[in-house]
Write a structure and sequence with these properties.
With 565 residues, the protein is α/β, with parallel strands linked by helices. Helices cover 41% and strands 19% of the residues. It is globular.
Amino acid sequence: MAAMAQAKAYTVGIDFGTNSVRCVIVDCMTGEHVGAGVATYPSGEDGVLLNPARPHQARQHPADYLWGLEACVAQAVREAQRREGFIVSRVMAIGVDATGSSPLPVDGRNRPLALTPEFEKHPDAQCWLWKDHTAHREAEEITRLAAAHRPHYLKRCGGIYSSEWFWAKILHCLRQSPEVFAAAESWVELADYIPAVLTGAESPEMVRRGICCAGHKALYAEEWGGLPDKEFLSLLAPELAAFRDRLYGKAWDASVPAGALSADWGGRLGLPCGIPVAIGAMDVHYGAIGAGIEEGTLVKVIGTSSCDCAVLPASQPIPEIPGICGIVKGSILPDCYGVEAGQSAVGDIFKWWVEKICEGDASLHLALSEEAGRLHPGESGLLALDWNNGNRTVLVDQLLTGLLVGQTLYTTRAEIYRALIEATAFGAYTIIGRLRSRGVKVDQIVCAGGIAEKNPLLLQIYADITGCRIFLAGSGQACALGAAIAGAILAGVHTDWDAGRKAMTSRKPTCYEPIPAHQEVYERLYHLYRQLHDAFGVSGTADLAPVMKQLIRIREETRSKLQYQ
C-alpha cells in the first residue's frame, strides 16, 4: 500500500446523467479530481427525445452515450496529463453509473436496436429514460396483480410498482410496439450496458447485471429466485413470461467487477486495457458513496429530480416502508441494505418556471434566487405541490400534477420561484417522515448534485423545513466520484468500503443549520401542504376550504412582524 501511495494510483468515474455524461479521474489516496470532462448529448431537447403528442415520453438515442463516453474521457485524460506527476498507466480501474430505470432493447450481439438501420428512428427502440412515464397503466396493472398474487414483491418496493421502472416499460413496449419487442434479444439497463460495452460483452448473456437496478427496478431478489417467476409474468402477458429466459438469472453487488477493460475500448479511451470495470449502478447509489454515506446520514442527490439514499445494517430486520423505491441488500454498499426514495422533479420544476414560463436563461435562476432570498417564510402567501412530473415518493403516482395556491394580482415571479423551492423541500420532509416512521435513522443530510452545488438558498430552505443540519458533498461530481471509489476498491487500492469512503470523500466546510424562527412558520405551512397533499393524492382525506384563508393569515402575520423589525 505504501508503494502504491508513493507511485500514485488513479481511477476513472463516469456518470451518465439525464442531459450529459461526465468523467472524473481521481487520486485514490485523496479523492482529488485531477482531470474532468463533460459531453452534452446532442440529440433531442437537452439530450432527451420528446414528443408533444405523448407528454409522458422521454427517450434517448444510444449513439449519444457512445459518443459522449469517448468525448468526456478524452477530455478528462487531456486535463489530467497537464498535471505534474500524472501517468496514465497508473489508472487502476473504471467505475460507471447511469440514470435508472433506463432500459434499452438490444439484439443478439448486445447492440442497441436503435443502432440498426431498421430501428434507428423508431422511438420505442431507443433507451427508455428514467422519467419516461408512458407505462403508467402497465405499472398499475403490475401493482394490482402483485398485490393479489405476489404481495411479497411489493413489500420490497414500497407497495406500488412505478411507471419509471423496468417491467412496466417492457410490457408497454410489447403492447405498443410488438415489432420492437420481437426484435429485441434482451433489454439492458443503461447502468449495465456501458460496463458491458467497455468489457467487450458481445451478447446479452455476457452482460454482468448490477443488483442496484435489478433489485430496485426489476423486482429481483435472491430469496424468490431472482426475477419475478414466469407464472406471475404470464398473468401480465405470456410473451413476457417467455422473455424472462432472455434476461438474466443473477445480479451482482459492487464487490464484483463487471469485467476488464477490452483492448478495443482501452485504445479508444487511451486507458490501460485489462483494468477492472466496476459493476454498473444507478447514479444516485454511487453518488451516495461519493457523498460519504453511512447509517444515519441521508444523502440527497438533487438534480433534474432528486433521489434520497440511506443504508441499514444487513443484520437488521428489513422494515416495510410504503411508497419508497425499494430496500435491496447490496444495492449501495455491499454489506448493507440500500434504501431509495425520491422526487420525480426538482430541478426540472425550476427549469420549467425560469425557461418555459419566464422565458429566461441560466442567469435568471441566479437573479430569482437572490430576489427570493430576500423574502421571508410565509411572506408571499403562496403554497405549491411539487408534482409537476408526478409523485415518486410517498404516493408513487405519476398521474399527479403540480399546483400553486395563494397567488394574487401582486404575486411576483420570484415569490413563485421561492414557493416552488419550498414545495420540493416539503416533499423531501414528507419522505424523511416516512423513513423515520419505519425505523430508518436520519440524523443529518448530505446533499450532492448540480442544483445543490449552485443554490445556497435551496439548502437553507431545506434545513429550515426538514429541521436537519445539511452539508454539501465535497465533490461537485459525487456520482462519478462514487463510481471511481468502486473502482479503487476492486483494484485493491483500499481494503474495504469504509477505508475508501474515509480517504476519498469530503464535505464542504459550510453547514446549513435550521433557523428556529423559520421552522416555526414552515411547520404551519407544512400542515397546509399536507392538507393539499392528502386531498389531491389520497382519495377524500382533507377539507381544503380553510387553506387559502390560513395562507393569507400567515402572510399578514409575517408582513406585520417584518414591518416592526
